[in-house]
Amino acid sequence: MAAADRQLVVAVEGTAALGPYWSTIVAEYVEKIVRSFCASELPGQKLVGTPPELALVVFHTHGPYSAFDVQRSGWTKDVDAFLSWLSGILFSGGGFSEASTCEGLAEALKILQGNPNTTQGHQNHEAQKHCILVAASNPYPLPTPVYCLPTQSTDHKENIETSKEPSIADAETVAKSFAQCSVSLSVISPKQLPTLKAIYNAGKRNLRAADPSVDHAKNPHFLVLLSENFMEARTALSRPLHGNLAPNQTITKMDTAPAVTMPGPTSNGNSSG
Known about the structure:
The chain is an alpha/beta fold. It is about 25% helix and about 20% strand.
């Protein structure tokens, strides 16, 4: 079965550090982007092809007291179902610990790559693959074992091989792999963390491209960095929300929300710290 032409993974830090900001982030940013990405038309452009696919990755703290590092969902083409997954995330733990950002990004890249076997870099070059990292903590600073980082083939420059052995990498190293795999990486955070901006810069395909400006006067302290290649996201944050939720409507209460239930295959990794 051929992969969808357009795919989006939202990688969310599931710690209590992000919890108080989550309803605002969903209403003001993530839902707008998701609805724009899944719209059948954009201004001046009619979209064709299969409906886009959406997936969710939730990562937690890095350390011996974390029950698991990463959870992942299957793919869905149902926007409302995906938004319900977002509203069902239970934020807990963390706060004073670094997050497993590296592992979360690696899992997002893994499911966006699909087949773990060697892929041709020029195949399906029209595909649009995007990832949004939503975090409120600094990433764990030391390199950790992760899977599915691409390596350049020595025989053909257009070939990208996916290593079946674990690589030792930090979050910035994983972010650089997004550019190699032609996956855009955007970052949203309620805090102006230099480490998250460094991850965004590492994932840029064109280092000289200017960062798209985002009007977020309501949340001036937020860090909102959208990839220059994610046109739907840039369009979404420059126009009113088209959806059922008012901008200030609370999506979920962190102290009562049930743990997220993700249909499809899931993967839980034990903490390596």
